[in-house]
C-alpha cells in the first residue's frame, strides 16, 4: 500500500521548507481514516482536536521555528487500552461503556508534550486478549492487504492504522506478541521494549508482569525517535526502569554481530514452508553482510505457550476483578443485590474470550490447583528467563520467526482456541524474559499477505537492536 508520509524526518523537512503545513498532514490522515472506515480501525477519532493542534503548530512554525518541539508534525494513534484524559477508554469492551479517563498515560503524555498530535483510539481484542482482533465488542478490524483476513492481535487496529496510512506512528500494547505479530501480519515495524523501559501508568492491565506499551511504524527511525521521548523513569510506575535513556536516534558504529537462532523454531512443523524459505534467505543475507548466525539449542519452545497462558490468565483474573459494575463502567439494570450486580454486570459486560481467561486464571490460582499449575508455570518462566539471558551473554541478538503463518481469514480460528493461542508461539519468549524485540517486514507471501521476522536483544539493549535493524 502506498503511503504519503513514511518518516517524521521527511515531514519535518517539508514543514521547515514551507512546502507543507501541519494542517495538511492532519487533513491527509483524517481523509485516510474516512476512506478506510470499512476496515474498522478506529473506535473514536479526535478530528476537531487534531485540527486545532495542527493550527497551533503551524502558528508556532511561523512565529518561532527555532523553538519547535522534537516531535512536531507527528500524528499518532493509541490503542484502546491506553488512557487519554477526558476521552473514552474501553479496552474494546462493553464493560467500560461510557467511561472517560481522568488522566493521560505517562507514555502518551510525553509524546503530546513533545509535539505529537493524537488523532484517535484504535480497535483491539477485548482487554488486549486475542491474536486476531476478532474479539472486540465493536467488531473485527480487517487487514488492509486483504480485508477478508485478520490483522493479528491484540493490537490489530494499531497495526492497520499504520498500514492503511491513517497515522504515522501507533501505540499498542504487547503482552505476548500483541505488537509484533500484527506488525508482521500487516507489513510494518513493531517494537516491544525491555519490560519497564516505558511506563505502564495509564495502560489497562491484562498481565502486569508481561504488559508493555509498544510502537508500530513505517520506519525504525520513527520507532527510535518516539521511544526516546516515551522511555524513562516514572514516579507513577514503580516497575519503570531507572536506567539512563540513551539517544536512540544516534547511529552506532557498524560492526559484525553474533546472532543465534533456534532450529526448533526455524524447523517447527507448524511453520509455513514459504515463510521458512524467506527466513532462511534472511539468514543467508545476514551472513553475506559479515554477521555470524549460528544455531543454538533451546529446549523450552513447546513449554512457552502453556506457561504463558497459565500466568497471564492468573494475572488477568486478578486485574479484571476491578470491573465489577459498582465503581465505573457497565452496571446491569436487572440486578437487585450486590452479588447480583457483580454477576450480571460482568456477564453482560465481558465477551466470551475474556470470560474464558478469567475463569482459567481463577482456576489455576485456586487452593487445590495453585501448586500444580501456577507455581509450576512460574518455574518454567524462570527456566526460559535464565536460558534466554544466558544465550544473550554470548550473542548480540536472537532471530525468530514472527508467526507460524500469514494472516488467516476472518473466523478461521474462532472454533479452535488452541490454534489461535499457538499463533503466538514465537513472540511470547520476549515477554517471558522481559527483553526488547522488533518485528521487521520481510517479504510478501505468494498469497499476497505480508511476512515478517523478529529480532530479540539483550535487556535494556534497545539502542543496539534499533541501530542494527536500521541498517538491515
List keywords for this structure.
single chain; 472 residues; alpha/beta; 11 strands
Note the total helix count: 16
Helix-and-strand structural type: alpha/beta
Number of strands: 11
Q: Beta fraction of the residues? A: 5-15%
Mean pLDDT: 96
Strand order of the largest sheet: 1-3-2-4-6-5-10-11-9-7-8
Please report the distance between the alpha carbons of the first and last residues: 21 Å
In sequence order, what are the helices and strands, one letter per element?
Answer: HHEHEHEHEHEEHEHHEHHHHEHHEEH
Residue share in helix: 25-40%
Ranges where pLDDT stays below 50 over 5 or more residues in a row are none
Using the CA coordinates, give the radius of gyration.
21 Å
Main sheet summary: 11 strands, mixed
Inertia-based shape = globular
Structural features, described:
It is a single chain. The protein is α/β, with parallel strands linked by helices and 472 residues long. The protein is built from 16 helices and eleven strands. The protein has helices spanning 8-17, 22-35, 47-63, 106-113, 156-163, 180-186, 220-230, 263-266, 273-288, 301-319, 338-349, 352-365, 370-394, 417-422, 428-433, 462-470, and strands at 42-45, 75-79, 117-122, 169-174, 189-192, 212-217, 258-261, 292-295, 397-401, 437-444, 450-457. An eleven-stranded mixed sheet has the order 1-3-2-4-6-5-10-11-9-7-8, sandwiched between helices. α5 (156-163) packs parallel to α6. The protein is globular and about 70 Å long. The protein starts with 7 loop residues before the first helix and ends with a helix. The mean pLDDT is 96.
Amino acid at each position: 500500500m502506498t503511503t504519503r508520509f513514511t518518516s517524521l524526518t521527511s515531514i519535518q523537512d517539508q514543514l521547515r521548507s514551507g512546502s507543507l503545513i501541519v494542517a495538511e498532514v492532519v487533513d491527509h490522515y483524517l481523509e485516510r481514516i474516512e476512506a478506510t472506515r470499512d476496515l474498522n480501525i478506529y473506535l473514536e477519532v479526535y478530528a476537531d482536536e487534531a485540527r486545532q493542534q495542527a493550527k497551533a503548530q503551524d502558528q508556532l512554525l511561523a512565529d518561532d521555528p527555532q523553538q519547535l518541539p522534537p516531535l512536531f508534525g507527528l500524528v499518532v494513534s493509541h490503542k484502546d487500552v491506553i488512557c487519554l484524559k477526558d476521552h473514552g477508554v474501553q479496552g474494546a469492551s462493553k464493560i467500560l461503556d461510557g467511561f472517560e479517563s481522568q488522566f493521560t498515560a505517562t507514555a502518551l503524555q510525553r509524546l503530546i508534550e513533545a509535539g505529537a498530535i493524537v488523532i484517535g483510539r484504535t480497535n483491539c481484542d477485548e482487554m488486549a486478549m486475542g491474536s486476531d482482533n476478532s474479539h472486540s465488542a465493536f467488531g473485527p478490524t480487517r487487514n488492509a492487504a486483504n480485508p477478508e483476513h485478520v490483522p493479528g492481535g491484540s493490537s490489530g487496529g494499531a497495526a492497520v492504522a499504520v498500514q492503511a496510512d491513517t497515522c504515522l506512528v501507533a501505540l499498542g500494547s504487547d503482552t505476548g506478541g500483541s505488537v509484533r505479530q500484527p506488525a508482521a501480519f500487516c507489513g510494518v515495524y513493531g517494537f516491544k521494549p525491555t519490560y519497564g523501559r516505558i511506563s505502564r501508568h495509564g495502560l489497562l492491565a491484562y498481565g502486569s508482569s508481561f504488559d508493555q506499551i509498544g510502537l508500530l511504524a513505517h520506519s525504525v527511525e520513527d520507532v527510535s525517535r518516539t521511544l526516546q521521548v516515551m522511555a524513562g523513569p516514572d514516579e507513577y510506575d514503580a516497575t519503570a526502569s531507572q536506567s539512563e535513556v540513551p539517544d536512540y536516534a544516534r547511529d552506532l558504529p557498524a560492526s559484525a554481530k553474533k546472532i543465534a537462532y533456534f532450529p526448533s523454531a526455524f524447523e517447527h512443523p507448524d511453520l509455513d514452508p514459504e515463510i521458512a524459505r524467506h527466513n532462511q534467505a534472511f539468514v543467508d543475507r545476514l551472513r553475506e553482510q559479515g554477521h555470524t548466525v549460528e544455531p543454538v539449542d533451546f529446549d523450552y519452545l513447546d513449554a512457552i505457550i502453556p506457561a504463558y497462558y497459565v500466568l497471564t490468565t492468573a494475572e488477568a483474573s486478578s486485574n479484571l476483578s476491578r470491573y465489577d459494575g459498582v465503581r465505573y463502567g457497565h452496571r446491569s439494570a436487572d440486578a437487585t443485590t450486590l452479588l447480583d450486580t457483580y454477576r450480571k454486570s460482568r456477564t453482560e459486560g465481558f465477551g466470551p474470550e475474556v470470560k474464558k481467561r478469567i475463569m482459567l486464571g481463577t482456576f489455576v490460582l485456586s487452593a487445590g490447583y495453585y501448586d500444580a499449575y501456577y507455581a509450576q508455570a512460574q518455574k518454567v518462566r524462570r527456566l526460559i528467563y535464565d536460558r534466554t539471558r544466558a544465550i544473550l551473554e554470548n550473542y548480540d541478538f536472537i532471530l525468530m520467526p514472527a508467526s507460524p503463518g500469514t494472516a488467516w481469514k476472518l473466523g478461521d480460528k474462532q472454533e479452535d482456541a488452541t490454534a489461535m493461542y499457538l499463533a503466538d508461539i514465537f513472540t511470547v519468549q520476549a515477554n517471558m524474559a522481559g527483553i526488547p524485540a522488533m518485528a521487521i517486514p520481510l517479504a510478501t507471501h505468494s498469497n499476497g499477505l505480508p511476512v515478517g521476522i523478529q529480532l530479540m536483544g539483550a535487556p535494556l539493549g534497545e539502542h543496539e537492536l534499533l541501530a542494527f535493524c536500521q541498517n538491515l
